[in-house]
Write a structure and sequence with these properties.
Length: 258
């Protein structure tokens, strides 16, 4: 389990794939870890130097006192890239990870080759919902948000593939409560609706037809606002890289290889 110090934050990361291949960074969603990308691991690491990491407050990365901010999380990633000596990368983030990608693209476009914003939005509201969620975890620990997993997959997928869902329920359960709450605040405060049109990186937006957390309208908004962005919609709920793993992997590879 490689760890690296990024300005006092001990970041847990994994590198796979050929050392001389272009770097592809994968950034996780709220309540998951770098293991959320397991369905893509084999295909992506054949073609790319794959960098997966646990966002602050998640997995094995340090849990600093909150609240956190998405801009700060983009700074964590820039620090990680500097520490590993990666000047320019492709970036793919899902949900909270996609918010980090938006922030990164506005702050350091020179570090990005292509950008994939998956099941994410310029804003995920309402703010009170994030306050309620944070308060529930502060009072009752991660058990209080266990039903959130039902938002990540369709009812059909939950019923038919319990073995695929179980690791995600475990990731959520094992997320440090303070880290989860810190990230709830970060998501609550993220609103780039009036800024994403300044993103100049070549971008693909992926949405899930059945996603209730970041519905297709959110993805269409991003794709409409970011100049030249491509929009792809997959038959999935929120974790489209799991529920529609094959089409997701193919869409990403086609975009990055095109
Ligand atoms: O947990 C959810 O409700 C879905 C979600 C929103 C931001 C994120 O990363 O996941």
């Amino acid at each position: 389990m490689p760890m690296i110090d990024v300005a006092g934050l001990a970041v847990h990361y994994r590198l796979d794939g050929p050392e001389d291949a272009p770097v592809l960074v994968l950034s996780n969603s709220l309540g998951t870890t770098l293991d959320m990308w397991r369905p893509q691991l084999a295909a992506f690491s054949r073609r790319f130097r794959l960098l997966r990491y646990d966002s602050r407050g998640h997995g094995e990365t340090t849990v600093p006192p909150g609240p956190y901010a998405i801009g700060q999380m983009a700074g964590d990633l820039l620090g990680l890239l500097d520490a590993l000596g990666f000047d320019r990368v492709h970036f793919c983030g899902l949900s909270m990870g996609g918010m980090v990608g938006q922030s990164l693209a506005l702050r350091a476009p020179e570090r990005l080759d292509r950008l994939l914003l998956c099941n994410t939005a310029a804003v995920i509201g309402p703010p009170e919902a994030w306050d309620r969620r944070a308060a529930a975890v502060e009072a009752g620990g991660m058990a209080a948000v266990a039903p959130v997993v039902e938002r990540w997959f369709t009812a059909d997928f939950l019923r038919r593939f319990p073995d695929d869902v179980a690791p995600f329920a475990a990731m959520l359960r094992d997320t440090p409560p303070k880290g989860y709450v810190g990230c709830c605040h970060a998501i609550r405060e993220h609103d780039l609706r009036f800024l994403v049109s300044a993103i100049s990186t070549r971008t693909m937006v992926i949405a899930g037809t059945h996603d209730v957390a970041t519905p297709p309208g959110d993805g269409r908004f991003l794709a409409g606002a970011i100049p030249g962005a491509i929009y792809v919609e997959l038959p999935a709920a929120h974790l489209s890289n799991v529920e529609a793993a094959g089409p997701f992997t193919r869409a990403v590879l086609a975009f990055l290889n095109g």
